[in-house]
């Protein structure tokens, strides 16, 4: 045991000796490099080029200091009221008459006023920002060619009070109660404040409220357009047999009332819940549709309940009647024109108020680009010539149609049909109700 302790202490002593030797050598090397670095720095400090740099830097600092002192002395000299008075006397003379003082003050006043006016006219005006509620679509479902037009404000019609008008507006004034309808390609109307051209704005009927009036502008314009396309009016509607698919839709409610007032024989389709309403509107004959699936109060992503084609066709065959005009106002039965053609008279016609398929919907990237430029160039050319641009055939969406609807409402020929009124935060519930079979007439969103 003693031998192990002796050998361990001997090895420890050897390690201490080696460590001391290494430390001394490292110290010597460090001192050597420090001395070499010091010598190099001294050599650089006394170098001719470095001496020249120091001299120029010193001269620059002295020049800056002298310039600052000179500026300070000038400021103190000219800031002295006595010196300022003497300088003014040397320039303008020692004697000032009242006339001189008058012209001097007038010049200062006029010059200052002109300067102030110029400054105010050229000042930067901050943009006026107004925040408001709006219901917008922020993305499309599925593959789309472009997203540059997003977000899109929804809504095709609205009612409200005019808060401001443009310089060229002639028919309307601030404070007028109006209703509005816009085409599909325009930004929508589900917003607290909307900016629209005068041609899409008409005065609201005085005998109905804002929420009731909101059910008519777009649907009523489509209804009058369909009747015009069919060539039906007050003078020739009597005894004509008209089939309206979707008598409880917003457009259908307008068509049933107008045709009933014009003494036409109206047959319409609707679900069981809407029978009392359709009868009250004036339908002479009702085809009751059967729902193929149960509906609840949740949002429905598909097109809603679909009726089997044979059911409606069978009811029409049982009636064994031919119609002068068949008007499709919704796609509740998903029937094509060929299914209805055998129920038309020889000179009968089928009209749809549903949005037509656009040629741009089936365009690829290349053809879509060419079509968009064709529309832009055509619009520019017609604008230069002062001609109206009606590429999408929305001529019926104008104040002339709105004024005609207003006349029908005020005369009592046309009643509004409002099913439910929702707040903006309930938009999904509103759309779900509108797509369900329980919807009758119009569903309204109010921003009050």
Automatic annotation (TrEMBL):
Residues 115-445 form the Enoyl reductase (ER) domain. The keyword Transmembrane applies. It comes from the Eukaryota. Gene3D superfamilies: Medium-chain alcohol dehydrogenases, catalytic domain, NAD(P)-binding Rossmann-like Domain. One of its GO terms (cellular component) is mitochondrion. GO terms for molecular function: oxidoreductase activity. Keywords: Membrane, Transmembrane, Transmembrane helix. Pfam families: ADH_N. The chain crosses the membrane at residues 101-122. InterPro entries: ADH-like_N, ER, GroES-like_sf, NAD(P)-bd_dom_sf, YIM1/Zinc_Alcohol_DH_Fams. This is Enoyl reductase (ER) domain-containing protein.
